[in-house]
Task: structure prediction
Amino acid sequence: MKPKIIVGVLAIVFFTSLLMYNFGNSISTYVNFEEASVRSTSHVIGTWESSLDHGFSREAMQFSFHMKDQDGNVRRVVYPRPKPNNFEQATQLVVIGEMRNNTFHASEMLMKCPSKYNDPSELELLNTAES
Amino acid sequence: MVSTFGNLFLSGAFVASLVAMAFYAWAAVSENKSIERIGNWVWGLKGLLVFASSAALIYLLMTHQFQYYYVWNYTSLDLETKYLFSAFYGGQEGSFMLWIFCGFIVGLGLIAWTRKPYKAPVMFVMALTQFFLLSMVVGWDLNFTQIGATPFRTIAQEMPNAPFIQANPNFVPADGTGLNDLLKSPWMMIHPPIIFVGFAMMTVPFAFAIASLWTKTYHEWIRPALPWTLAANLSLLTAIFLGGYWAYETLSFGGYWAWDPVENASLVPWLIGTAGIHAMIIQRKSSRAHKASLFFAILAYVTIVYQTFLTRSGVLADQSVHSFVDLGLYGQLLTFILVMTFMGIGFYLYRYRELPSPDKESKFLSREFMTFTGSMLLFILGFVIIIGTSSPIIGRLFVANPTPPEIQFYNDWSMPIAIIMALATVIGQFLFWQKHTWESLAGKLIMPLLITSVAAVLTIVIGDVRNLYYMIYIFAAWFTVIGNSTVMFSLLRKNPGMVGGTVTHIGFGALLLGIIASSVYTEPLLDQRTANYNARIAAGDVFDEEGFPVTQRVEMFELEIDRPKLINNRYMVTYQGFDLTDSPRPGQQNYILKFEPIDGSSPFYMSPEVYPMLTTSSRDNIEWSVDPFVRTGLTSDIYLYVAGSRYVERRNQELQRQNRPGSIIPVGETDVPDVQNIEIKMGETIDAGPFSFTFRNFIPAREDALPENTQIGIRALIIVEHQPTGNAFEVEPLFAVYTDEGRSFTYSPPLEIDRWDMNIMFTRIHPESDSIELTVHGLDEDFEEDWILVVAEKKPFVSVVWLGTFLLMAGFSISIFRHWKREKDTQESRD
Result:
């Protein structure tokens, strides 16, 4: 019985540590654009700066826009795919990619469009439109 | 009024669940039948109240009472009745109510079929879970805290500080915001009920496990619990399938699975439930593994509650695209998960020493050991996925602000586990029906191994598989299919009712094959130019304007109207234009693409759609949403959507122009004359904007096209070419001079080129310079031909993924019948 339990415990410990080690490596932390410029791959959370130019370029086949990160840095972001669904409505964007020369090259982009309209201003708009 | 009753009913149900709980506890302790009967009556009453409050909510939804936040938030006047109904469970509160209702129905089944000694404690646990679920929706405002969020709250209660509410507290919006277009799908109507039926049924093994610990009867509980667990798993599997199918057909990420937390939330309980089924089967057959079956029965429900906590408490808010609205239920959900875990696991540990354990260890080559291995592997896979999904909590151990793990994490771990599982299923199935030694087992496995090798080698050669790891995976998957089929055929001859297990295992193997084919071997459909460009990117030869190498491949291509392109050296693809329609969605464009395979097989059409998402669009910003088109085939699917088009771009530009405040129009932007006169000699070509006009020669006009009394009647052969694309039309406008009442008139009927919104008239002849004059309307300097951007993928053998899923479902169904029937028979013989 005894050696079996020891082997079992060792196997569990080994498996769990391997799993946690691998898990720790596969997650990353959210950073701002400043920090991203000295890292290889980064996740940056931010919001779309709609006042600056944006759009899909058919020559470069990429979508570009400006994003303000949570610390207020604004950078141009290029994304080599069409503008995603829900882009405009996203309350928050997460771009995954790397920073090169002040431009963030996103390989992935996530839109956070949680609750539709928890924002009362939307309702207000509706209200004024009707009155 | 209705809402007052709705709230009252909910509060009543909440209290009733507490009362039922008390009676069942009393009945369990005192083993008193009549008290138990009172408990049943209270349970029924509680169900009636839940039913009544659900009916009240549905009534409010159907009658469009937009003063209620839930009604306003999830429906609108133009919503079809079926979606009005499904809006009932479209939101967080309503989905809790649906879950509660399913739990109630399951409880009725338990009352009818469960025998002593389990009935009272089982129903106690059921009532306890109902109590927690109801607490999420009662919406009691105790002064110090709020319990739950009721679906019957008004807009004024939801946003008391909004200015328009302060101006007019009785404000009723004229229309609601409507249901998200993506959710308007028949799949999404049936998906939530099925998942909640699964959640509710998964409560049953948990309740039985607690009852077994309570009554210290560790052997018998699995007999009634097993069919319930199987049925719960079948529901969850069906729900997962529907969700995946919906995602594949509706969303633009191009797959059926993305390891999203919400998807994992239903997969993990399924895996743990399946682990539990394996353990229960060993316990039933060999009176072993009591500990494991109790543990997994408890854990399956705990993971349901845990994943509910993750997706509904707002913990995952940053990570999942479709996590629920945070209703401030964090504390309550946390209590729910803690109570369930402590009650389940705590009770389990408390009784652990008393639990029966086998006298001697199972041999390696025994059905007990193999089935138990399957159970452990399923548990390990579930555990890995839980770790991944919990990254916002567990990730804090490593970094301050953790992101979700890369998809690779899930793939890296699930693949080796799946391979071991695949091999274990075959050995397990052989041993399950017959005792074997190594020699006899090897003898049995020779044929299946031979066939597997042939199938695997063929797959590897035909599929051009280069990766050794994938080769092993493919071998293991084929081995599962073939090995289990061998067992199935021998069972079919003996007792066809027993094939459930083998059918599920064959389904599992097919699923593995389908998954690798459709995910790893998906190829983008591209034209030659883009493919060449991607090859240059791969070689590191492409640099952006700042001199950095471009690493992202282009996975879309452009099509201009009526200009075929050769795609993947297989299809000539032609964009043939689009129709605008208002049905089913206003402003929807149906694009038409013709695919002509160059091997000569028959052409086919694909019609992806783009539409403005009305629920999230506003007057100054249209949000365009795509609806992919999937052409399903036996060997491969083509998945395609329109990522951009001239129409959408123009609409956006128009909107931007309209919205520019006090718009200043740059010179020359609007005052471009709509009419242009072009003087042109025979044989000459004149450029006008992006077009060129070539006057070839005169051709005689036919008599019947000319007015009466014509003196001169002639046509000019003009070639109009759109230079950027090279598209050209030949037109033959007519010029005639006729006399009427002694006066001469010219006659120049306009010729229309519909596609360019242009019309051409032949208005004069200048005999002195041998030239003619054309008058052209609608010549747009900025004109460009209609174009679309297409994202398309060819996905091999998605059909096999579905086939595998259906086989799993079929296998579960067969097993449910078998175990249910046996359970009924033994009950009848006992009665």
The longest strand of chain B covers residues 710-722.
